[in-house]
Structure formats: structure tokens, C-alpha cells
């Protein structure tokens, strides 16, 4: 756990300070745990990244997902990707840099970052149940051009447990969007990962700095501990 003090039952040992959540108003938000980011041959690797850096987040997310399913917490998965005709992919995104394959190009797991292709799907270890919400997003943030706000309002959600990849890109963007919309975000430190370990560290620091300017940060063990007493 991040904090050495003995946890108070039901309170998450988080930074910058402990936080108690109203569990029925809390959802688990899992960002972009897709083959395109996690596996060789996908979007992440075409950008020159070492995808093995992201594997460390899978087990902690799996533990949270199990706990959420066991306790009936709303689970929301997101997937970054684009329509086959690329009409929702801005040229500035498609054309940038010098990747080995661009968004929409055919790759070993189908067309890169295109909805419906194998690479766009969520990794088997964290595969959504039919009853869970899956949000397809064209951008980094999960609120931009999606139905996420409607889903959260429908279920009366005020708090988000946020995990996924990558810490400094889609996780951070989503947390910032959520913060502006009034949601309390607890970001799971070991349930996020980056291709760049230093960006992971700084991405978490940016969230919890200045009294938690964008939210709270806690590890999965601290959240599981708090859920155990609070949701049963
Ligand atoms: C990126 C993401 N890194 N899911 N997307 O392009 O963080």
C-alpha cells in the first residue's frame, strides 16, 4: 500500500489523502486494454514501443475486475479505435510521426486501430462480459465523442476507479475530462502502465499533486481492502 498507516475499514488508503467512496455510486473504468496496445504487431508496437512494458497492469486489473463483478459494481471498458472509413480519425492523428504502419493499414491483427478488427479487441484476460458496458472512443479521452456521460448519469455514478493504458495518454486524458465534469477519480497505480516507466510515474504524480488536483492515486490492494468491508 502507498500509505503505511493502518487503513480505516472502508476507506481507501490513497494519495494525497485517504478517501471513502459511496460504492453504489462508483464504477470501475478500464481504459483501452486492447490487443493493439498490449500485443506485438499492434498500434503500440508500430509506434516503436516495447509493448511488454504494459503487461504488469493486467493482473491488478484482473483482481479489481473480479472484485467488481463479485460485488455488482458497474464495469465500463473502453476501446480506442476508428470506423473502417476513417471518417472519425483526424488527419492530424493518422498522418503524424513515422510509424511502421499507420492507423487503417493492414497488420498482423487486422487493420491497425480499426473497430471490429482483432487488434482492436480487448485482451482475453480482461474480456468484457455481455452485461458490461463497452465504450468505443475515437480519441484519447473516454468522454470525447462517446456516450459515457449518459451511461454514468443513467447509473447514478459519481466516482470512478480508473485503470488501463497508457497512464500518461488515455488514462490521464480521461481523468482530466472526468475531473472537469465533477467525477471523483481514484487512479489505480499498479493497474495502469506506460511504454515509458518515467511517464507512468509522472502521470500519477500529476494527478495527485496539489492536493489531488485531478484525483486520488491508490494501489489495487488498497482499493480491494476498502471494497471488502464496504460492499459486502
Ligand atoms: C495511446 C492510449 N497511447 N490508450 N492510447 O495512443 O493511451
Automatic annotation (TrEMBL):
Occurrences of domain Isochorismatase-like (ranges): 26-218
One Pfam family cited in the UniProt record for this chain: Isochorismatase
GO molecular function: hydrolase activity
Keywords attached to this entry: Hydrolase
Organism domain of life: Bacteria
Full protein name: Nicotinamidase-related amidase
The organism of origin for this protein: Bradyrhizobium sacchari
Amino acid at each position: 500500500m502507498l500509505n503505511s498507516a493502518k487503513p480505516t475499514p472502508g476507506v481507501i488508503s490513497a494519495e494525497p489523502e485517504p478517501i471513502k467512496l459511496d460504492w453504489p455510486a462508483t464504477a470501475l473504468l478500464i481504459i483501452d486494454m486492447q490487443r493493439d496496445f498490449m500485443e506485438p504487431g499492434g498500434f503500440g508496437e508500430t509506434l516503436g514501443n516495447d509493448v511488454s512494458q504494459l503487461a504488469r497492469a493486467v493482473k491488478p486489473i484482473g483482481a479489481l475486475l473480479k472484485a467488481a463483478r463479485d460485488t455488482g459494481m458497474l464495469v465500463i471498458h473502453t476501446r480506442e479505435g476508428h470506423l473502417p472509413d476513417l471518417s472519425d480519425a483526424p488527419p492530424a492523428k493518422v498522418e503524424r510521426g513515422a510509424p511502421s504502419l499507420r492507423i487503417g493499414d493492414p497488420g498482423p491483427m487486422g487493420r491497425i486501430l480499426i473497430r471490429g478488427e482483432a487488434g482492436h479487441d480487448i485482451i482475453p484476460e480482461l474480456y468484457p462480459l455481455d452485461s458490461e458496458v463497452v465504450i468505443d472512443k475515437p480519441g484519447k479521452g473516454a468522454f470525447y465523442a462517446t456516450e459515457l456521460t449518459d451511461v454514468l448519469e443513467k447509473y447514478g455514478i459519481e466516482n470512478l476507479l480508473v485503470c488501463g493504458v497508457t497512464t500518461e495518454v488515455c488514462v490521464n486524458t480521461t481523468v482530466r475530462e472526468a475531473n472537469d465534469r465533477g467525477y471523483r477519480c481514484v487512479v489505480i497505480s499498479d493497474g495502469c502502465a506506460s511504454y515509458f516507466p518515467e511517464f507512468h510515474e509522472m502521470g500519477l504524480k500529476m494527478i495527485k499533486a496539489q492536493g489531488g488536483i485531478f484525483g486520488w492515486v491508490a494501489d489495487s490492494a488498497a482499493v480491494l481492502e476498502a471494497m471488502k468491508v464496504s460492499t459486502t
